Amino acid sequence: DAKTTQPPSMDCAEGRAANLPCNHSTISGNEYVYWYRQIHSQGPQYIIHGLKNNETNEMASLIITEDRKSSTLILPHATLRDTAVYYCIVRFPGGGADGLTFGKGTHLIIQP
Amino acid sequence: GAVVSQHPSRVICKSGTSVKIECRSLDFQATTMFWYRQFPKQSLMLMATSNEGSKATYEQGVEKDKFLINHASLTLSTLTVTSAHPEDSSFYICSASPRGGVAGELFFGEGSRLTVL
């Protein structure tokens, strides 16, 4: 699976959009970009995933650059409950047969 | 979304005893479940892949005789930490992928915090 690079931490004001970047310059053509988050002392939570088109769901938006070498997760109106470690993971879908490899992620802190 | 439940959420045991942690997929069937371990201020580390009806596959450095995994049904996998020692104290998390679900999407349990005295 391709390696990803994320900033170790970010701050964002409550109510503002939080934009979390991820670099994955070695991504291959069939690898997807997945985002998960982990709130303190809880299991990770799936947020969103995409291949090359931008994606949006009720939690967030995922913007993938045209060359697919980087992406940005956008939380449109951050709340205090969005404080968590956010993980960007690039992998082949594998039909769910492969476990995820977690990097260090970005610790997003939402400030009141 | 799909729900994965772990039990117990917290357990404290004496050194040398064995502890069993259950992972259940509540509203879907999972042919494959995964077990992770997370030490304080560190990321999740994959320990093993649990396949229904067959032996688990362990990651390098994980002792299969110490961390026994049983996946007896499509909705239940168990992790037994045998002869636990203080260094086994950690946050153990399971995950599962719905059979026939969105490609690569995994759902995680709430985690089980093990403290070995």
Features:
heterodimer; A: 112 residues; mainly beta; 5-stranded mixed beta sheet; 4-stranded antiparallel beta sheet; 45% strand; globular; B: 117 residues; 7-stranded mixed beta sheet; 11 strands
Brief rundown of the structure:
In chain A, 0% of the residues lie in helices and 45% in strands. Chain A is mainly β and 112 residues long.
Give a description of the structure.
The complex is a heterodimer of chains A (112) and B (117). With 112 residues, chain A is an all-beta fold. Helix content of chain A is 0%, strand content 45%. In chain A, the strands form two sheets. In chain A, strands 1-9-8-3-4 form a five-stranded mixed beta sheet, with no helix packed on it. Chain A is globular and about 40 Å long. The mean pLDDT of chain A is 92. With 117 residues, chain B is mostly beta strands. Chain B has strands spanning 4-7, 10-13, 19-25, 32-38, 45-51, 57-58, 67-73, 76-81, 90-96, 107-108, 112-116. Chain A binds chain B through residues 32, 34, 36, 38, 41-46, 49, 87, 91-105, and chain B through 1, 4, 6, 32, 34, 36, 43-46, 49, 91, 93, 95, 97-99, 101-111, 113.
Q: Mean pLDDT across all residues of chain A, rounded?
A: 92
How far apart are the termini of chain A?
A: 37 Å
The percentage helix of chain B is under 10%
Strand order of the largest sheet of chain A: 1-9-8-3-4
Helical content class of chain A: under 10%
Instruction: Give the ordered list of helices and strands of chain B.
Output: EEEEEEEEEEE
List the helices and strands and how they pair.
The complex is a heterodimer of chains A (112) and B (117).
Chain A: E1 9-13, E2 18-23, E3 32-38, E4 45-50, E5 55-56, E6 61-64, E7 70-75, E8 84-91, E9 106-111
Parallel strand pairs in A: 1-9
Antiparallel strand pairs in A: 2-7, 3-4, 3-8, 5-6, 6-7, 8-9
Chain B: E1 4-7, E2 10-13, E3 19-25, E4 32-38, E5 45-51, E6 57-58, E7 67-73, E8 76-81, E9 90-96, E10 107-108, E11 112-116
Parallel strand pairs in B: 2-11
Antiparallel strand pairs in B: 1-3, 3-8, 4-5, 4-9, 5-6, 7-8, 9-10, 9-11
